[in-house]
User: Fold these one by one.
Assistant:
Number 1:
Amino acid sequence: MKIILNNRDEYFDEEEMTFEELLNIKNFTFKMLVTKLNDRLVKKEFRDSTIIKDGDNVTVLHLVSGG
Amino acid sequence: MNYLEIRKRLKTKTVGIAGAGGLGSNSAMALARSGIGNLVIADFDTIDMSNLNRQYYFYEQIGKMKVLALKENIKLVDSNVKVRSFSIKLESHHITDIFKDCDVIIEAFDLQEMKDMLINTVLDKLPDIPLIVGSGMAGYGNNNLIKTVRSGNLYICGDQLSEVSDDNPPLAPRVGIVSMMQANQALEILLND
């Protein structure tokens, strides 16, 4: 499948995967992430059950403390 | 748009600021100087000596509620800015009430858990209001890592990397840069509206 991840094209052999699997494959290891699929927020507890498919637009942002 | 047109447009606008620390106090002052009509500011904290290294407060204000001191400082610059301040530790249900009439919301908390809570609440309950978050500004140097990333109505300013810790404290320049980026992004949204 081909998806857009943070505004860049990404290709995977898999036909689909969960959001959690994508985070693991792409090594997003930060403690706190904002995850969006097709501009809708995906809450942390739904990353395991949210499926990413060909053509999806995925955004992963890092939240770090400080202000 | 010329200067007077910018001021006239901003006069009608309202910006919500969640947190009155390094990000909130500096972005509020920049918006006040730009001619924003209304600010809604919420914070539960009082001013501590350790805040003066980066926050828009002064020695003689130590011990005061941040929201009240910030209102005083804004009025010293421009007494026409209407400031509504809430001395409150924000939780999800307050956020919806306090910020529902804002044209833009600036996230200016310290802790990532609070940032996460605000993002979840605003995207869920107030999805039409643009939200400008600060993430990653600890330490010094690395000017060019600091940027703004947009995803729909959510904007993230910062390097998304530098977390505050004992060995990587928040300092005036980088916190200031991110707070100014947040204020600048707010102006862009409000003036292109």
Number 2:
Amino acid sequence: MAVEATGSRMELRKVTDYVWEIPRTGDMLVPGRIYADRETAEGLLRDSEVKKAGGFTPALRQVLNVACLPGIVKASLAMADIHPGYGFAIGGVGAFDMEKGVISVAGVGFDINCGVRVLKTPLHRNDIEPLKEQLANQLFRDVPAGVGSTGEIKLKEAEIDELLIRGSSFIIEKGYGFPGDLEYTEEGGRVANARPENVSRMAKERQFKQVGTLGSGNHYLEVQWVEEVYDIDAASAYGIKKDQILVAIHCGSRALGHQIGTDYLKTLEAASRKYGIPIRDRELVCAPINSAEGERYLSAVNCGINCAFSNRQAISHLARIAFARITNIKPEDIKLLYDVAHNTCKVEGHDVDGKMKKLLVHRKGATRAFGPGRPEIPHAYRSVGQPLLVGGTMGTASYILRGTEKGMKDCFGSAVHGAGRALSRMQAKRQWRGEEILRELKEKGIIIKSRSKSDVAEEAPLAYKDVDKVVNIMHNAGVNQKVARLRPLLCVKG
Amino acid sequence: MPYAYLEHISDVGIHAEGETVEKAIESGAEAMLNVMFELTTVKETVDVTFGASAGEPALLFVEVLNEILSIQDRHSFAFKRLEVRELKKTGEGWLFIGTAFGEPFNEEKNEVKTEVKGATYSGLIYREEQGKHVFECVVDV
């Protein structure tokens, strides 16, 4: 069945109950494919008909625009948390042929390798309940957060270069973590081909004081408990059980990543003209992957990826120390479950028409979700698939999912990254006040620590889509599978 | 200052106007800074003069906004406003010199709102209408 938008050329065809397709027409090189249920699909179509104030491109049209980029393989994809971004939709995934394809700033975003890591403690929910307020205050003191925050790690320029090349291992050697953490970080906490000479001095200067800081906006450190386990085998492999206390950390490459994005937006704008790349929207400026500009940008993105891994690594250490101060456990008792990256483009091997092929996979607000057997997955998890860490909101559930074989075939092993926004920040601020949200969450037993009341209102739980619904779409589509549902106890925000 | 915010689900759309291109750029800078700080809590004790260039006014607008973010971050300042010193069109494009005013960031004193990561080409517009110059773009937050 097809659902057509009146007065618009946008059209969505139902492939299954949870997969909808924008058929290939006109300049499209591949179809668009969106993970959605009927209600979500119809909502996306309605939004695509309306010319938004300011002329911003609706999410479905962004999926369509990406489908027109040179060298795109198989489909322009969007995960179930799809909402409008810039260039790519948030939740957008685009895989490109290494010879004919392009690399795009909009497919990565400004917050390179914004991602989530989850730490597992040996504590039970009942151990933390009486210490919650104390723990929240300690974490708020020890983990720098908010606009303009600086960390305790101050690096010199040569050290920044080393951090950009070596990622988490560099920061662990500085005393922030344990060598075992590396195995449980995507890419071992370090991607290759990171060349600091392609990162501007300005970008490096902006990072001197920001290693180990959360930032603001939707970034957080949350203490959660396991409410429900769906997949006992996978939960057992991941080392999690009902009522266990976990710690989720969501942040990225901070200002270094922002500056890399800013610098290369200009470079790729010029490259788009130089190489005559047919882009439907200026926000999709890009360069051929194998051009000098494309290669420089990719190596700079890799630096940003390593920077973000080391940032989350440093914050993990600060959280471990804070827990040790308030509870009776030692820092080394807190193990890393996994660390996943959201805003990246990475060279990966995928099966395309029966042949393994190297592709550059952009995931913008989407997560890598490799299925069982892939060598990139830690040995202990390999039989069940990669853990996926899906953040909810301050007041709602988060999830641990796992990657599947079907996900490898259908969407280059990708997953949702969160609930996805339903209301704009302005709508949220008009609807709620920060103080109200804090009070309501406190009544539910959730403590929020934030330096910005305005940020709290913007991040109100109801400003986001229903995370249960988003996750169920991916689960029912068979590309991600539910392992456990988590509930927040306390949240430190920027 | 004549600026407004445009609905955008993920980020923030900025609409800035002025009787001249210079004034419209100044409005846009204030619109962006107002996303980051409660500007009434920011004093003017430091100023930084900087340059920027681009092939067309819309790209220059993004360039200037990003330069403000970069300087502010590198020096740990909170900026309040921008004054355009010089703006001219040459054979190679548009050249800009401006001064940003603010103070060293003080967590206790400067009320923070939301961090802006960068100005983007999304929804990027420059137009002249009824004697007004208008810029619009999305800033990533």
